[in-house]
Amino acid sequence: MENITQLKALLGVPKNIVITTHRNPDGDAIGSSLGLYHFLNKGGHTVRMITPSEYPENFSWMPEIEKMVVYDIDPEYSQELVEKADIIFCLDFNALDRIDKLGDLIEPTKCHKVMIDHHLYPEGFADFLLSDTTASSTCELIVDFIHLLGMESDLDVKIGECLFTGIITDTGSFRYSTSAKLYRIVGELVERGVDDYKLQDLINNSMKEKHLRLLGHCLNNRMEILEEYNTGIFYLTKQDYEDFDIQRGDTEGIVNYLLKIKNVKMAAFIMEQPKIVKISLRSKGDFSVQEIAQKHFKGGGHKNASGGFSFQPLETTLKRFKGVLPQYRDKLAAAVI
Ligand code: 5GP
Ligand code: MN
């Protein structure tokens, strides 16, 4: 962040601050919002968090998560908070269309905007930008941000546990996007008192029976392996959504099971949700799924984890996805894991 001195000066005086993050917030979106919230609160600011849509229930143990204002539930209050803000932090997203109507509210505001994010190709709407696509997570970047401000003595257990949560979820418990720097940061968080075992347990061993049954259903009945294209697909129908009572967050992590097959280098999860067909893409090694998400499914994301959506029916979307594969066949075959 080039103009950190200016931001540091702004934060030297108590401000009205809004923290916002992307739709369908994941562990990193929630962890970075809450971590920054507790940090700024400690600095004497009046801080509010807004998320465009509801957060998954499995994060309800996180300290003060209930203070998150959900735009979909409370649009008027969200608008009031945005209008009153002196500074708006945008975390874990880099384009205002990722936050839908909330983006339309934020765009015209005159207040200072700070973007902290690790996705590819950031839009230029922020006055202060901390963007690093090599970072594991936005939570890692919040630790960097605290260091840039020279306020690491404020990094306590509560802040650390929120940030550790996003690091665990965005790295699949330290399996990808790791670096020596990340391990140093994690070491610092543990030194501050973060209980890594407790957090791993809270995050990874919190499935309900219905989640395991849904995973079984995907593995048994909704899986296609296209060896020719080193690609695996899971899909879910509208009927599955009813039969398994699938709620927000219930499909999290399932797509990764496809990558357990040795020669599968790209995994796709195509979900016929009530209003749209959502697509989650994952890859191994140097094959990037970002381009497929952006070019063909109005989305984006990272090299190894991207997503998008389609308004066409499930069948058509599945066909369209399969239709794209021949163009990538050689790249997939050649990709180094
Ligand atoms: P997931 O598959 O877990 O929903 O998302 C994986 C990654 O892709 C996330 O980092 C997310 O930011 C990105 N992503 C998912 N859906 C969309 C989308 O509709 N638009 C864009 N631009 N990115 C998405
Ligand atoms: Mn993230």
Automatic annotation (TrEMBL):
One GO MF term: nucleic acid binding
DDH domain sequence ranges: 16-167
Listed InterPro entries: DDH_dom (IPR001667), DHH_sf (IPR038763), DHHA1_dom (IPR003156), Oligoribo/pAp-PDE_c-di-AMP_PDE (IPR051319)
Source organism of the structure: Phaeodactylibacter xiamenensis
Domain (DHHA1) ranges: 243-308
Protein name: Recombination protein RecJ
